[in-house]
Amino acid sequence: MAGVLTFDNLRPDVFESGQTLNTASYNLLFLADPTTAAGGGVSGVGAILNGRVGSSCDIAACPQGATGNYLAILNDGGVNFSRADRQAFTLAGFDYSFIAPVSGLPNQNWGQLQLNGTLSDGQVISTSLAFPGQGSDGNYHFQSASLLAGFSNYAFTGLTFNACIFNDTGACSNSLDFPAFNQGQFALDNINISAVPEPSTYMLMLAGLGAIGMLSRRRTGKFAASTVQGA
């Protein structure tokens, strides 16, 4: 049930909002930026990029440190994760980075990665993480996420990632009223995600363990009886 999404089994590609990518039993739905979504339009918001090939990201300042492919969310878009079998799932961790629109920007905290998880009863649990700053080489690098236990312990039916950018008022925004102007961009990799079995599956597992225990006791009883008879 547990696994790590690395995207290394996928070929580099680009995706528009509304498209769905299926990988390792998960559906990734690409979401348009708020302005495009409000107008019912379609925009380019996703890409599978090869971190070992510098030319795969020749405009934006893409992160360093990827050993293979990673998922890039661009132009203020987002991505929603759900399981193809509709089971709930948990998120234990992932690597992430800011994708600056151009290289050479000052090293500062430009915004946050936002996570919104939907529970089976429709309740939404949210958290946010500050984007890592630049390294000593002036580039952005992947960093492991530090999730609060209260978030990683939930079982979600859907999980959305998007980014916000700090505006002049200090608020972190990416909305119709306060757009991020295509600067809300980020990369994800090594997503540690696990399906949660349905209660009926647990019951079958327990029944199987019970049957194994009963068989083991019977074998032990037979062995003891034969030992007494042979004494």
Automatic annotation (TrEMBL):
> Per its UniProt record, what InterPro entries does this chain match?
Ice-binding_C (IPR013424)
- Where in this chain does the record put each Ice-binding protein C-terminal domain? 195-219
Q: Which Pfam families match?
A: PEP-CTERM
Q: What is this protein called?
A: PEP-CTERM sorting domain-containing protein
- Native source species: Janthinobacterium violaceinigrum
